[in-house]
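Appendix B. One record, verbatim.
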Amino acid sequence: MLAGAALIAMSSMIKATSIIALGFLGIALARRWGATLPSLRSIPIRQWWSATKDSVLALARSASLMGVIAIVVIVGICVGTGLGFGWTRTLSTGDIVRSWMSMPTLLSVGAGRTGIGLGLGDHTQAILDIVRPLAQLIAAAFILRWLLAALSGRIHPIGALGISMATIVVFSPFAQAWYLLWAVIPLAGLFGFIDLSFFGANLLKFFHGGWFPLAVAIVLFTVFMSWAAGLRLLRARMAAETLDVAELEGYVAAHHVPVIPGTAIFLTGGSKLPMALGEYLRKGGNLRANTVQAAFLVQQVPTVPLDEQLRFVELGPHLTRLEVRYGFMEYPSGKALIAALRAHGIPVAEGNSMIIIHTVDPLPVDSKGMALWRKHIFAFLMRNARQPQLVLTVPQDMIMEWTTLMRF
């Protein structure tokens, strides 16, 4: 607990509001020492001190300890590092920011704009100077309320801290999106404790049917993790056997690979050269005059504007990369791909063109990197995955599927 108090004191030098956590840590410590919030309604005033003496002394000792730790840590860091106390003069610099995410600022700026619209003049700054301190006083009152609730035992101190941090976010004069994490992290700890309590209680029902959902969860977790781990192993193996542009040009020159008429379009899910291209050169023994890598790149947006979807990159003689960018709510269009290639001067027609879709047939052979039985699960899932040709709208006569038996 003392180490936690020191860590909170250090964090307050980065974000001053974190010092509030010391208050709730102090409440938790005071409750260990017997402090509580007694009911004074039925007690005569002259007996209040005797009824609250132990709690007041425990709170005083806890507050003194938290205060000493905070002072020693902050002063020690400021003096020991030579940074001094100049950072304290910058604590109020955030007040100059007018963030719409701050409720007091939003209301003040809105009222100021309304005044301007009504011809009353610009009094936005004056409204801010009144509303912001008032909001901070309201936040302080709420935080005091949560401290007392934690002292009485009605709310766990961690949960009360989470609610208090949420209160600060709501009434803060300036706010950023990540400020929400101040409230989420303590509340997650509280609700995690509650979930563990329910989990422990339900363990008593394990042999009365509770084993079934746990078994289903374990099976699904094993399948998902096997898929993710197998995909990483397979991609690493494929990357090791994939040629880059320089290696490709060197191979073509060293082996005098003939260039024949026609167009070969290799579909890939990334910007690296396709593994199938290297295998095609080694086993097919030729290079098409128009060899195209169509790299389908999914963007982290729902849709991509039309003028940003296609981009041509000349990689070398007879080799072009077409980068196809689309959002996660879009499907790539094979017809648009072919139209773009023709507009770029690359002839695409049935008879002299082929669209090569590379598929990998994983063959588990050992336990390197992952257990062999998990590799068999991954291989089963891989063989039943949806094939790209079912999504692309291209002439089926132009599609050639190139399958690689990959031992891993």
